[in-house]
Amino acid sequence: MNILVINSGSSSIKYQLIQMPEEIVAASGMVERIGLDGALISYKSGDFKLTQEVDIPDHETGLLKITALLLNEEFGVIGDKDSIHVVGHRVVHGGKTFSETVEVTPEVKEKIKSLVPLAPLHNPHNLKGIEVAEKVFSHAKQVAVFDTAFFQTMPQKAYQYAIPTKFLEDYDIRAYGFHGTSHKYVSEKSIEYLKSEKAAYSRIITVHLGNGCSISAVKDGKAVDHSLGFGPANGLIMGTRAGDIDQSVIFYLIDKLGYSADEVKDILLKESGMLGLTGFSDMRDIEAKSAEGDETCRLALYMNGYRIKKYIGAYIAAMNGLDAIVFTAGIGENSSVIRKIVCEDMEFLGLHLDHRKNDVRGNTLRDISVPGSSVKILVAPTNEELEIAKQSYVLVN
């Protein structure tokens, strides 16, 4: 079965064509800068790679360009559009309605639309991807996989805010969690790996570190707490997002310094985090500057790691122990520096980092803890597209 996985953003479409149940990636790529000058489309199938600068005014044009590449007589991987049996869509916010993957219906689309106020930067573009795919692949089943679904298992003591209860009951204001597809995938892979060594690994902390960052407590395979809440802004320090901040700072910026609410939102979401601390949002630049002796960048790295360590401590308490910490996503998988900062001075937990293993890059799940450590340190490559394909395949079968 050919499943086309689409992750539709405000100006991009990330895609993979995956053959299921074999889990073979037949083709993959990305459309970037939709509606802007210098739009790009990339395509990879086996050893063949292609990147083109083309005019892509909207998402429909982008998806048609992707289809043309998949159908190309020379390097394409399908014979016609009907060879796409299922289109799996990443949808960021499912609210409290969607606790599992669903086939798209008019009612589902209306509910996704109603949740736009909860994820204004994501849900409109996710919905646009669905609507465009319905037109382009009219014979395929459309499936929605929700980032928030994995966190529907969080208990109320974890997801409810200490504000008047009417805001939860009347307006669904609560913690929902994000990056759920990634956390689900790596926690399942990690538990599967650990069970081969010990029968009852059940308390996992998954650390998703990219431009957006989040950390989850996963007990017995189910999420019990998570750092991101009502929106994808709090918790860990991110590329341009501040993460946790005293609400008094927001009031002070508005009431005393004269910033508008919109200006404060832009400051906290687009101008803060590692960018606000260092002038760089890319961790590679910050690590390079730190290595050259830049104390500002060095401090930012340790602030980043310190925030992660605090959440690890909280989640160990919440789960009454810990069996493994799992690093994933672009920074989590590739930054030996951040992993070292997070894991140092944690020996009291039975957590011992093997520095030689930590410095070795790899693209498979690996254990970087010292042999015999009671708490394992794992690096697990995430694969959100494969997780979406797997969930879509299970649903339609």
TrEMBL record:
Assigned EC number: 2.7.2.1
Catalysed reaction equations from the record: acetate + ATP = acetyl phosphate + ADP
Cofactor: binding details: Mg(2+). Can also accept Mn(2+).
Keyword Kinase among UniProt keywords: yes
One Pfam assignment: Acetate_kinase
Annotated GO biological process: acetate metabolic process; acetyl-CoA biosynthetic process
Residues flagged as site, Transition state stabilizer: 179, 241
Keyword presence, Nucleotide-binding: yes
Binding site for ATP: 14, 208-212, 282-284, 330-334
Broad EC category: transferase
Chief localisation class: cytoplasm
Binding site for Mg(2+): 7, 384
Cofactor: Mg(2+); Mn(2+)
Active site: 147
Keywords, alphabetical: ATP-binding, Cytoplasm, Kinase, Magnesium, Metal-binding, Nucleotide-binding, Transferase
Pathway(s) per entry: Metabolic intermediate biosynthesis; acetyl-CoA biosynthesis; acetyl-CoA from acetate: step 1/2
Residues reported in the UniProt entry to bind substrate: 90
Gene Ontology cellular-component terms listed: cytoplasm
Protein's cellular compartments: Cytoplasm
Function text: Catalyzes the formation of acetyl phosphate from acetate and ATP. Can also catalyze the reverse reaction.
Name of the featured protein: Acetate kinase
Species, as recorded: Yeosuana aromativorans
Species classification: Bacteria, Pseudomonadati, Bacteroidota, Flavobacteriia, Flavobacteriales
